[in-house]
Sequence to fold (537 residues):
Amino acid sequence: ERLLETYVAFAPKGFVSFTKAMPLWIKEKLFQKNFLFNKLKEHDESYKSDSNIFFSDHHLSHAASAFFPSPFNEAVVLTADGVGEWATTTVAIGKKNNLEIKKEIHFPHSLGLLYSAFTYYIGFKVNSGEYKLMGLAPYGNPIYEEKVKELIDLKDDGTFRLDQTYFNYATGLTMTNEKFNNLFGQKPRNPKNEKITQFHMDIAASIQKVTEEIMISLVKSIREEYDIKNLCLAGGVALNCVANGKILKEKIFENIWIQPAAGDAGGSLGAALALWYVEDGNKRLINPNDDMKGSYLGTEFNQKEIEIELKSVGAKFEILKYEQLIDKTAELLSNKKAIGWFQGRMEFGPRALGGRSILGDPRSDKMQKNLNLKVKFRESFRPFAPSVLREDLSEWFNMNVDSPYMLLVADINSSKKIEMTSDQKKLFGIEKLNIKRSEVPAVTHVDYSARVQTVTREKNYRYYDLISKFKKETGCPILVNTSFNVRGEPIVNTPTDAFNCFMGTDLDYLVIGDCILDKNHQNQNLKKDYSKNFELD
Fold:
């Protein structure tokens, strides 16, 4: 309905896009129910009726994924993303096992699509490069803020409309158009042959600042209107952890909870929860710590399965007792080794949380650059997150709330900072990268911020024990944590995936279950060349 109405409204503009979109709809998407029914029959031959398939609205799924696993009996739920059916931003009220959407902003007016338009303009891939835009922003200055605001009719309560004369996403094959280019003075960057310049960093800083302003305005207005003390967030925009950190800092709501799989993947969980609670009326038991089990909801392999897989791929490994394994890994980390860490269940959502992680020593001023270039094969400017013991959080970061899902950004405490010299302050853009800013430079971004993950023994005892041992060895209760994959590749899922990634990168060790693998002891013929495997996002 949205596609047809949009194409009709913009006609004859968008005909080329229309001819590309419609065959897929006519062939597959209009017959989704039948397609799903046939898939379910493949899994269960006795499955008889497609009347048991329920369809949840996109934003109801997002809202349900945020409210029902939250530790709140009552909350306002704000969802913001690119677009669902028509909605792009919604406000819902959740109470006990009930959830009702109260307000919506509709397509083509979308905060997610606005952010994606700038992702495209800076030369990153839409729907995956938004993280890079957020990571690039601190290198720039928001000097284009007023020009960005020319694209938006923004009201005091945070509601907005986008001036569609600058955009091409409604019916075109690109996100922005010539008028947009003229406003900012350059064409979109071609990632194949154009480097990132100060201009692109300043553009990133500008759209990030405007996004934060819009989110804060929306949050303030819904707090005032509904007078409920708890806020839940979901939708792709809720993965903007810098904006989340600013909302937290403003203390608009007493408590905030964000769905760790805030993007569309989390919609699967939300749809199931909406059916269970809203439609079927089941009683809701509230877990004071939240009901996501640390987001460790993925696959798990026992020790026997790990050993069988590792032997089958020709890996050479040593098996250690638990305490020896923790001691050895902590010692290797303190000696600046880069380690692949594969333990327990895989994480659900876009963040590695100590299940499928690459770990490093945050005290090293070379760790960020080396992990980016030699392990992840990605741009050197991209920041890494600190995993910190919950009890040590406020000693190191300007923050004292749980952040188990790495969805909040906080500043490093002034006592841990290393102030820049007057000469260093004059540096521009990427030149700022190699300056040591704190006692943990590998996790301190250029603006002295960090995307924090708090770790407790209840949620992940192995990871907690490792960081505790590292603290005992070094006095530092923090590890560098990034997802166990290379650029553009999905996070590793199986022991075979982990070994292949280990052999295709400059990781020094792999710790998987009770097995530890030293790169120097592996068959060098098993090395892989990952450098050309995956496109830039």
User: Anything to note?
Assistant: The radius of gyration is 24 Å. Residues 394 and 400 are 5 Å apart (CA to CA). The chain has 18 helices and 16 strands. The chain has a mean pLDDT of 91.
